[in-house]
Write a structure and sequence with these properties.
Elements lengths: L16 H12 L9 H4 L6 E6 L5 H12 L7 E5 L10 H10 L4 E5 L7 H11 L4 E6 L17 E5 L4 H9 L8 H6 L1 H11 L3 H9 L13 H21 L6 H13 L7 H8 L3 H13 L3 E4 L14 E4 L2 H7 L6 H13 L5 E3 L6 E3 L3 E6 L14 E5 L9 E3 L8
Parallel strand pairs: 1-4, 1-5, 2-3, 3-4, 10-11, 11-12
Antiparallel strand pairs: 6-7, 8-9, 9-10
Helix pairs in contact: 4-5, 10-14, 11-14, 12-13
Length: about 425
């Protein structure tokens, strides 16, 4: 990379002013009107922490908001850098950390770390050399802090950032503020929770729109191209991130996309790996390997009947796209509402709960205790009759009806 590109205002490429001035420009344009509740779940005092998440959920915005909120736009005590910047083609993490330390810096945020070769080795060394600096990392859902060149798992606190919940969608898109409710609140105090929400808004008025758009915050900036951007995100994750981070043969990317396409067209069903392998023209074990990569990348959810004994190459019992917006964006046939409901259920619950496949009765087992049956307004208890701690979650209900719980209520868990 030629240093001539930085001549003029910046006489030296390694001048830290380049990074601070770039940060100031970015912070001035960082909107503080929408700050995710996820901000409060992170232990920002940890000496080394990592925020992972799917592309588009708002990780970079959150990091810049944290600096703006806690340090201001012009402070040099905090520095945000994205490791895919041209600057890092000729400068190392260690070099930046050293200069930042010398200038009295306290918080160094390194975004897109998965795009920097040997990132874990340099960060481990920098954290050891400069214990007075707090390091915050951010990267792909595929990022594994235990699999890098240096094991950071014992010293790094990792967080996984989801997209917007239905509750957050109402807050950011509609200006409707709702409190958080626990799963126990929803199951034990159903009527009270539903009444509290209905005092503020009519949830059904917004729920089916949420299934179609709003999981990714970038809808607010570009609603017309929302589905196209979701598809671009899927293509990037498969063509670039999975290929680079999981050493997948690029020639098979089209076949991996074919797997996604098949899943987007079908109603929820017991997984037939042999059929999927035939449709994608891949070997059975290769399909299982790719499905695990897609799950790690937050493109799909794999549901097993027993999470404790699940093996690396074990067949999942059910496969769903990671969120309902992705389902509507990628499907080339009308979306089956049953698929969207189950997709929503698993997506919202998985943030803080374990979700397993219910083998014989019901659709899902939650936290090893509750059995959930998911359906429309006419869904009955016949399939879960006699099952302890079992519940029916029904779509198209604004308030509970008998023992049926409105499906939208699973969207106020985070």
């Amino acid at each position: 990379m030629c240093k001539i590109a930085f001549c003029g205002k910046h006489e030296k490429l390694d001048n830290m002013d380049v990074l601070f001035e770039k940060q100031e420009v970015m912070l001035r344009s960082t909107d503080m009107k929408i700050v995710r509740d996820f901000m409060r779940t992170v232990n920002w005092s940890a000496p080394l922490l990592c925020i992972r998440g799917a592309r588009g959920v708002g990780k970079s915005t959150l990091l810049r908001q944290y600096i703006k909120q806690n340090f201001g736009e012009t402070s040099r005590k905090a520095l945000y850098c994205s490791l895919d910047w041209v600057y890092f083609a000729q400068h190392s993490i260690l070099e930046v950390a050293a200069k930042f330390y010398q200038s009295g810096g306290k918080l160094l945020i390194l975004d897109e770390v998965h795009k920097y070769p040997h990132w874990s080795r340099e960060i481990k060394e920098a954290a050891e050399m400069y214990p007075d600096i707090q390091f915050v990392l951010s990267g792909s859902s595929l990022l594994k802090i235990i699999d890098g060149d240096a094991d950071l798992s014992r010293r790094c606190r990792a967080y996984d950032m989801p997209g917007l919940s239905f509750r957050e969608y109402l807050k950011f898109y509609k200006g409707i503020t709702l409190p958080l409710f626990s799963l126990e609140d929803i199951l034990d105090k159903t009527k009270d929770v539903a009444a509290a929400v209905n005092e503020v808004c009519r949830p059904l008025e917004h729920f089916h729109n949420y299934l179609k758009y709003g999981y990714y915050p970038f809808y607010l900036k570009n609603p017309i191209d929302y589905y196209a951007l979701i598809e671009q995100t899927e293509n990037y994750v498969i063509d670039v991130e999975i290929v680079q981070q999981r050493n997948v043969n690029p020639a098979n990317c089209r076949k991996i996309k074919a797997l996604i396409n098949v899943l987007a067209q079908n109603v929820p069903y017991d997984t037939d790996i042999t059929k999927l392998a035939q449709l994608a023209q891949l070997q059975r074990n290769t399909v299982l390997e790719y499905l695990n990569h897609l799950a790690d990348a937050k493109l799909i959810n794999l549901i097993y009947s027993d999470l404790i004994s699940v093996g690396k190459m074990q067949k999942p019992d059910k496969i769903l796209l990671e969120n309902p917006n992705m389902l509507y964006a990628l499907a080339t046939v009308p979306v089956h509402i049953g698929t969207a409901r189950e997709c929503f259920t698993v997506n919202q619950l998985s943030v803080a709960h374990t979700v397993e496949y219910a083998k014989e009765q019901g659709d899902f087992k939650v936290d090893g205790r509750y059995t959930f049956e998911i359906g429309g307004k006419s869904k009955t208890f016949r399939q879960i009759a006699g099952v302890k701690d079992s519940y029916v979650f029904s779509d198209d209900l604004e308030m509970p009806r008998g023992n049926k719980i409105p499906l939208w209520m699973l969207g106020v868990l985070y």
